[in-house]
Amino acid sequence: MKLLTNMLLAFVLAFLSVASFAQAIDINTATAEQMDKALKGIGPKKAADIVKYREANGPFTSVDDLAKVPGIKGKTLDMIKPMVTVGDMPAMPATPATPATPAKPAAPAMPAMPAMPATPAKPATPAMPAMPAAPAMPATPAIPKP
């Protein structure tokens, strides 16, 4: 039973994915036969009317121009809008446009290491003043002894 359920689910998903990638019909280049087969709600007569209008008035500039074709109004136009394009531009985007993320600013360049001196200079130590070998004694007068 589980195998049957999985197979059914796989079939449904495959069908939906194929349906979502269906090509839109370019109303400026499609023949009446192509429109009749590909567009729901458009029979051979309406498809022929679209081609006849296009040949008489030039290419369509937008999908909404189909409303100018006799026999195509409100509900029919709303139904086929997602299935048609004008030139290379799709009638409706498949996904909403997302704003581009701004690029990150470049990291600042690291400065080069300063050159190191070959041998550091040894600081000079001040010389100590010379010290006498024996401390100097103050001269004292001799006192006679009694």
From TrEMBL:
Which N-terminal residues, if any, form the signal peptide?
1-24
**PANTHER family registered for this protein in UniProt:** ENDONUCLEASE/EXONUCLEASE/PHOSPHATASE FAMILY DOMAIN-CONTAINING PROTEIN 1, ENDONUCLEASE_EXONUCLEASE_PHOSPHATASE FAMILY DOMAIN-CONTAINING PROTEIN 1
Q: Tell me, which GO biological process terms does this entry list?
A: protein secretion by the type II secretion system
Q: Bias category Low complexity: which stretches?
A: 119-140
| Protein known as | Topoisomerase
CC per GO annotation: type II protein secretion system complex
Query: Region (Disordered) spans which residues?
Result: 119-146
User: What are the entry keywords?
Assistant: Signal
What is an example of a Pfam family matching this protein? Answer: HHH_3
Question: Which SUPFAM superfamilies is this protein grouped with?
Answer: RuvA domain 2-like (SSF47781)
List the InterPro entries hit by this protein, alphabetically: Competence_ComEA_HhH (IPR004509), Endo/Exo/Phosphatase_dom_1 (IPR051675), RuvA_2-like (IPR010994)
Asked if the record carries the keyword Ion transport, the reply is no
